[in-house]
Design brief:
Layout (H helix, E strand, L loop, with lengths): L1 H25 L2 E2 L6 E5 L5 H10 L6 H13 L9 E5 L3 E2 H10 L4 E5 L6 H10 L3 E2 L6 H12 L14 E5 L2 E2 H21 L10 H14 L6 H14 L6 H7 L10 H5 L22 H8 L8 E4 L5 E4 L2 H13 L4
Parallel strand pairs: 6-8
Antiparallel strand pairs: 1-4, 2-3, 5-7, 9-10
Helix pairs in contact: 2-3, 7-12, 8-9, 8-12, 9-12
């Protein structure tokens, strides 16, 4: 009996010693070979394989650390709750803190910014260049456009314009389509808000037309204070049955083999996007308009101006008559005046 008691006491002491040693190990700081450091927990990777790789790469200094981390993950059930992905350490952490990070899924976040006024092709190129994005869309712009319209159920001739230019954050390995799906949903919300707040007398019949006109406003001016004034000019032109006569639409629709500044031949060459030769709106947006352009187009400024021309400093001169406009063109465009 005394021998059994002794064995029981010894067993308790051993268990206690192991528990104490394990507790110390799990709360001991580990330091990667260098900081900051990143590591990846691959989708479908077993907990044992992950711990082994951490040990082989020098993250776990002692084999006992690997033993306790592997055992803790299994016994506590946390290994079943960890999230795959890429993680980053900027400072030393304990094994316990490392496990908390994996269970919480605090993966590295990347970002991509779609700029107001970009064409969809530029957004697609930015996605293709981003090293953390998983590429699933066709490289051909036309095929990518068709794939987006099909996947996102965009009922339009083109997916151009249907993505809100903002910054989007995502973990490594996110598909390009997934990011564009978020941008499309954001544009739908922004467009709906602008449409609901629109003036009653707008000469447009649908949110899609508002999006198209907003894309023209976006390309015509980067000056926030001018957007509503530019939108007002286009509203009055549409009200009167005048052609919009806006250069950005001509640039968008001209032969892609042509480059450089607009020439007279571009202005007289008829295309669906040439607002000098055709009345009304072009068939699709010409860029990704931002919230400010959407709101300005929905609530254009009052006024009497029917024309505007660039001062070459980011702002414009607005004119009520063609005679005044031609004078402004002579001063700021043909004559290069100040």
């Amino acid at each position: 009996m005394r021998a059994l008691k002794l064995l029981f006491v010894l067993a308790l002491l051993c268990v206690g010693a192991i528990a104490t040693d394990g507790w110390r190990a799990l709360n001991q700081s580990i330091t990667p070979p260098q900081l900051p450091a990143t590591f990846e927990l691959e989708r479908g990777q077993s907990w044992q394989a992950f711990v082994r790789r951490m040990r082989d790469q020098g993250w776990l200094e002692h084999s006992r650390d690997a033993f306790y981390l592997r055992a803790w993950g299994r016994l506590d059930g946390q290994a079943r709750r960890i999230h795959s992905g890429e993680y980053r350490l900027d400072e030393a952490v304990t094994l316990s803190e490392l496990m908390d990070m994996l269970v919480a899924g605090r993966v590295v976040q990347y970002d991509i910014t779609f700029i107001e006024g970009w064409r969809l092709s530029e957004a697609l190129e930015a996605l293709r260049r981003h090293e953390a994005v998983r590429h699933t869309l066709p490289e051909s712009a036309g095929e990518a456009d068709a794939a987006l319209r099909d996947a996102l159920e965009i009922d339009a001739e083109s997916a151009e314009g249907w993505f809100l230019p903002e910054t989007y954050r995502f973990p490594r390995g996110t598909a390009d389509l997934s990011i564009l799906k978020r941008a499309h949903a954001a544009m739908q919300r922004a467009l709906s808000d602008a449409w609901d707040a629109r003036r009653d007398d707008l000469p447009i019949d649908s949110p899609a037309e508002l999006l198209t006109l907003a894309s023209i406003v976006e390309k015509e001016t980067g000056a926030v204070a001018e957007r509503a004034r530019v939108a007002g000019v286009f509203k009055r032109r549409l009200d009167r049955g005048m052609r919009l006569q806006t250069d950005p639409t001509v640039l968008y629709g001209r032969d892609p083999e042509r480059s450089g500044r607009l020439r007279r031949v571009d202005l007289v060459t008829d295309t669906p996007y040439n607002t000098y030769t055709r009345g009304g709106l072009p068939p699709t947006p010409i860029c990704l308009p931002g919230r400010a352009a959407l709101n300005a187009t929905a609530q254009p400024a009052e006024g009497t101006a029917l024309y505007f021309v660039s001062r070459n400093d980011g702002t414009h001169v607005f004119s009520d008559t063609l005679i005044e406009h031609n004078r402004a063109v002579d001063r700021y465009q043909r004559g290069g005046g100040q």
